[in-house]
Amino acid sequence: MSVLKYTEDHEWIRLDGDVATVGITPYAQEQLGDVVFVELPEVGRKAEQRKEIAVVESVKAASEIFAPVSGEVVEVNKALPEQPATVNSDPLGAGWFFKLRIADKSQLDKLMDEAAYKAFVEGQH
Amino acid sequence: MAESALSRTPLHKLHLELGAKMVPFAGYDMPVQYPSGILAEHLQTRSQAGLFDVSHMGQLRLTAKSGGPTPAVALERVVTSDIAGLAPGRMRYALFTNGAGGILDDLMVTNTGDHLILVVNAACKEADEAHLRAHIGAEVVIENLAARALLALQGPAAEAALARLVPACRALRFMQSAFWSIEGARCFVTRSGYTGEDGFEISVPGEAADGLARRLLGMPEVKPVGLGARDSLRLEAGLCLYGHDIDETTTPIEAGLAWSIGERRRREGGFPGAAVIQRQLREGTQRRRIGILPEGRQPAREHTEIQNPAGGKVGEITSGGFGPSLNGPLAMGYAETAVAAPGHALNLIVRGKPLPAKVVALPFVKTNYKR
């Protein structure tokens, strides 16, 4: 069974077993606009919660991706740097960024669930 | 700035109807993009035609006073370009300078025959008008045409679109102007723009702007384009954005805009900062505006440090991003003259890491003016 959580940085994290997939939310991609560049971390890198781990750039702006939880990068979406527009077209699916083996699952508990994130986004307007 | 404090152009309602993402820009609530997005809007303008609302820009009219000098003679005291030599029906790029040769604003000047029309940057328009009134207000009548909107119709299909309303527009050439009645409104049209493409800027009475915009947007070639794509289009065309690529600390010579000054003005001077600019024309400058092509896909943004291959700082990026037509990153900036020639290898320091790049000639994308 997978668990889907969201951060205040408009990232999503989906846990399957002890590996979590990370991407940015539909709201985030819409705010960014057309994504033209993605820089991913190296596999094996130790990610620290809330620290910069990747970069996403649109035509108009650069934005950091923060590690939603601490862990080790076990896989990255190799297709993404070649097809950065996938972040816009399928942010919750093929537009994923990287996978983390999570160190401390309790960090997930403090992130928002879908309902809380939806309220958070509405509060941004 | 609070949203309520933002000014609105006559097309504000239309922007909202079209689903634009609105942002504050120079005190106006302006469309940065429409639902199709900056990439699509940019490519639309290069392949067909884009309609831009640039009503936030300042439009000023200078008219002679009885017994006073011509507006051209008066204006030459505050700009570097040859205005007296500007034929009726012609438009020219010009620069307001300060006493140090720095650029106060860039503008377009059109000689309509009996007066001059100036189009200045939105963020500078109040200062520009005050500057004009202080320096030449006693000699010429200065009118702010704030009740007029300004539409830019840009792209290879702009002529075909506008010709449905004004067949005569086909005869207009780049940097020429005409007064036409369009859809019943008296418009002032120039064949000019800020995209590197052929196109027109249409000054239209504010109350007629919405109708004209809707008429143009109803044509198959024309789609709305926001400020986001306006920026990527002008950057690919190598055109300066005031407040970024040029400002009070840059001179026309450093900015590579010496071409705009004209032979007579170079010789005679008579504009603010003439001594500095004439000396720089003779002796050169320490730094130059350059075009920069980063290697790979990563954009380098404004304020990115430029280093030589040995790691010494040689300049800074003033505009940088992604060029949709170039299909890659591009930038402009200032670098020491010694490394400013096309072909020089440079490093851009992006997030602490050197990104290899090279100096290239401007524009990045071939311009497509109808001369």
What can you see in these coordinates?
The complex is a heterodimer of chains A (125) and B (371). With 125 residues, chain A is of the alpha+beta class. Chain A has a single domain (3-114), classed as RNA polymerase II/Efflux pump adaptor protein, barrel-sandwich hybrid domain (OB fold (Dihydrolipoamide Acetyltransferase, E2P), Beta Barrel). Chain A contains four helices and nine strands, in the order βββαβββββαβαα. Chain A has a six-stranded antiparallel sheet with strand order 1-2-3-9-8-5. Chain A is globular and about 35 Å long. The N and C termini of chain A lie far apart (33 Å). Among the domains of chain B are: 3-55 and 147-236, Gyrase A, domain 2 (2-Layer Sandwich); 286-360, Aminomethyltransferase beta-barrel domains (Elongation Factor Tu (Ef-tu), domain 3, Beta Barrel), CATH 2.40.30. Chain B starts with 11 loop residues before the first helix and ends in an 11-residue tail after the last strand. The radius of gyration of chain B is 21 Å and the shape is globular. In chain B, 21% of the residues lie in helices and 34% in strands. Chain B has helices at residues 12-17, 38-47, 71-75, 125-136, 158-163, 206-217, 227-236, 263-268, 274-283, and strands at residues 21-25, 28-33, 49-53, 58-64, 90-97, 103-111, 115-120, 140-144, 148-154, 177-182, 185-190, 199-205, 222-224, 287-294, 305-307, 313-323, 328-336, 345-350, 353-360. Chain B is α+β, with helices and mostly antiparallel strands. In chain B, the strands form four sheets. In chain B, strands 10-11-12-9-3-13 form a six-stranded mixed sheet, with helices on both faces. In chain B, strands 14-17-16-15-18-19 form a six-stranded antiparallel barrel. Classes of the chains: A alpha+beta (125), B alpha+beta (371). The interface between A and B is medium-sized, with 14 and 19 residues.
